[in-house]
Structures are given as structure tokens and as C-alpha cells.
Amino acid sequence: MAKHSQFRLLGQRRFLPFYLTQFSGAFNDNLYKNALLLLVTFNAGGLMGLSVNVVVNLAAFLFILPFFLFSGIAGQLADHFEKSRIIRNVKLAEIVIMGLAAIGLWFGWYELLLLLLFLMGVQSTFFGPVKYAILPQVLADDELVGGNGLVGMGTFVAILLGTIAAGLLMGFETAAKLTAVAVLVMAVLGYLAARQVPVTGNHGADIAIRFRPVKETRNLMTLAAERRPVMLAVLAISWFWFLGAAYLTQFPNFARINLLGDETVVTLLLAMFTIGISIGSMLCERLTKHHISLVPVPWGALGLSLLGIDLFFAVPDSPVSSTWWTLVTDPVYLRVLLDLMGIGICGGLFIVPLYAFIQHETPRDKRARIIAALNVINALFMVVSALTGILVLGVLEVSIPGFFLLLSMLNAVVLLVVWRLRRSETVKPVDN
């Protein structure tokens, strides 16, 4: 097949409707979640007698809990049923959930909104396995890295835009009602895009569907461990989410304490990190020359460590009050921005080839369940990331730049793992 740019996929029905569907979902998740947290923080001042800090952490727990409970059955369904059908049903469920959320936002029923955050997590759990398992069925091998790059870029841009949109809406007196309309409209647009996703065919009718959350989650781990290279790739991706969650969680305090910045600085840090990941994701197709290859992965891992170490030394010892303009014009602060963008670029180089590798090296009838296993491990690593942050920053009282330095040093171990994986990779045709 002729080697064309990955962007041509955005003009083709086999890819564009799916891309718009996953983009709208990631945008809506973050718009709703961040708007809810901002409303609870600034309007409700807590919930059910709980402090704001407790409610914020409870919300994060409620969103991530479904990945542990329902990934097993989500993987089974995605391997059993035709995937475009699942996508449409999941997006239809999103309309129902966001319709209830719109009512809750309109009338200020925050307890209901927390419950619906859990249901949004359930919806995301069932979409996750289909999101990556469908790509090898609609893309050729020489398009798989580029397609994953577009999905990775779209996901992080949607997260950024959803977060920014939530903040902008809070500037209006009718913020809750505007958010109610926005999340419902986005859910409907996502469903309309999902209706255009072409049928992929049903290839796993013999796979049994069992609702046994704990046992099926354990079975997912066993399935993922059947091939050592695939399991190593799964763990490497989960490490990236550990690392990414650690950086993103600390941005607000990092901006406030270490850069003496305002809220515009937090947004700029998030934007630079996201732009970096998008650039790295887009570079992967060119660097792999349209082949499924792990060549960029060790270089991405190396960059994550080196730039993370440089970030530690780039943070000024005696910061001055700053805005976003200070960061882009002052060479001292500009170095911090460039390090964060570089970390994002290296993250894109690191994660996109690993996703393509897992998709290609996994048999079609097990692919969605292995992606579901990846989602469980991702969720686990992000929980451990939060606990690590609490331990290192709260108990051991390490500074945030010191925490970033520690993460960069730990990443050196991951570099050794992915280097060995790269040296031993043998990408051969699998039952696709």
C-alpha cells in the first residue's frame, strides 16, 4: 500500500466517524467532571457534610472504580459483539446519562451528579476496549501507527479543551445551566457520529458473557500475561499513565508554589504538556516509516528521564509572581515550558507505538479483552500514582520538583525494560 500521511484517514468514513465519536466522549467526560468539581468547590462548598477535598477525591474514586468492576464484561462484550453496534449503544447510554446530568445541573442536585459521574465511568469502561480493538479491523498494518497517533492526539486535545471549557463556563452566572446544555449537546453529537461508524463484522460469537466482576478481572490479567512481550508493553503503557497522572495532578500546586503563578499558568502548563503529546503522537508514523515498530519507544523513555531531570534544575530557586505571559517571555520560565513540552513529545513517542504493537500482536478474538486488561492496569497505576504523590509530597515532604526528579529516576528502570522489549521485538502477522 502506498505510504500516505495519516491525516488522510480523517477524510475516510472507516476512520473519521470513530475519531469524532471518541473525541466527543473524551471532551464530554472532562467537561462534566471538571465542571462538577468546580461547582462543588466554589458554589456548594462541600457535599453531604464532607469537605471539598474529600469530595474531589471521592469524585475521582467514583469515576475510576468502574474500570476495576466492569472491564471484564466490557472486554467480553467487545470481543463477542460487532463493535460498531457496541459503540452506538454506549453513546446512546451517554445521552441518557447526560440527560439526567442536565437535570441535576439545572436544579443543583449534586448528590445525583456524583452518582452520574460513576455512571460516566461505567460508560467509559465499556467504550475503552472497543476504542482500540476496532482500529486493526478498519486500518491496514501500515496505517496502524498513524491511526493510533491520531487517536492519541485527539484524546489529549479533547481532555485539554474539555478542561478549559469547564473553566470558561464557570465565569458565567448561569454556569450550571450552560454546562447542562453543553454536556447534553455533546452527547447527542457523539451519538450522531457513532451512527456513521461502519460495521466491522462479528468475529467472536462463541465467547461466553459472564457477569462476575472480580473473577473476570482476574481472568483478564491471566489473558494479558499469555505473551510476555504483550504484557511488558501493557505495563509500559500503564507506567506512562502513572507518570502522566503524577504530572497533571501536581500542575496546580506546582504553578502556585514553585512558579508563583495564577490560574493562567496552570492552563498554560496543561496546554504545553498536551501539545507536546500531540506532536509526539504525530511524529510516530514518520519515525516508524509506516511500520509497526517499537523503535521510538526507548528514545521516548530516555527523553522522559532526561527532560524530567532538567525540569528539576529549571525551576527557579526564587520565583517571582507570574502569569502565562511571564512564562513565554522570561527565559528562566520558558525553559520550564520547553521541558514540559519535551516531556509531552517523548510521552507521545513512547505510548503510540506500544498501543499499535499490542493491537497487532494480539489475536482478534482476544484483542478487546486484553485492551480491557490494559485499562484495569492503567486504572490501578493511576491510583498508585495518587497514593505515591500523597506519600512523597505529604508524608515525606519532598518538594514538587523533587517529586518530578524522583519520577524521572524511576523511569530509567522502565527505559531498560522497553529497550529489552525493543531488542527482542519480532512483529509477525497475527490473526487479524
From TrEMBL:
Record carries keyword Transmembrane: yes
Classification via Gene3D superfamilies: MFS general substrate transporter like domains
Annotated TM spans: 58-78, 90-109, 147-169, 230-249, 264-284, 296-316, 336-358, 370-394, 400-419
Key words, A-Z: Cell membrane, Membrane, Transmembrane, Transmembrane helix, Transport
Subcellular location: Cell membrane
Membrane topology designation: Multi-pass membrane protein
Entry-linked InterPro entries: Bacilysin_exporter_BacE_put, MFS, MFS_trans_sf
UniProt KW Transmembrane helix keyword: yes
GO CC, one annotated term: plasma membrane
GO molecular function: transmembrane transporter activity
PANTHER family in alphabetical order: MACROLIDE-EFFLUX PROTEIN (PTHR43266), MAJOR FACILITATOR SUPERFAMILY (MFS) PROFILE DOMAIN-CONTAINING PROTEIN (PTHR43266:SF2)
Name by which UniProt lists this protein: Predicted arabinose efflux permease, MFS family
Organism: Marinobacter antarcticus
Lineage, highest ranks first: Bacteria, Pseudomonadati, Pseudomonadota, Gammaproteobacteria, Pseudomonadales
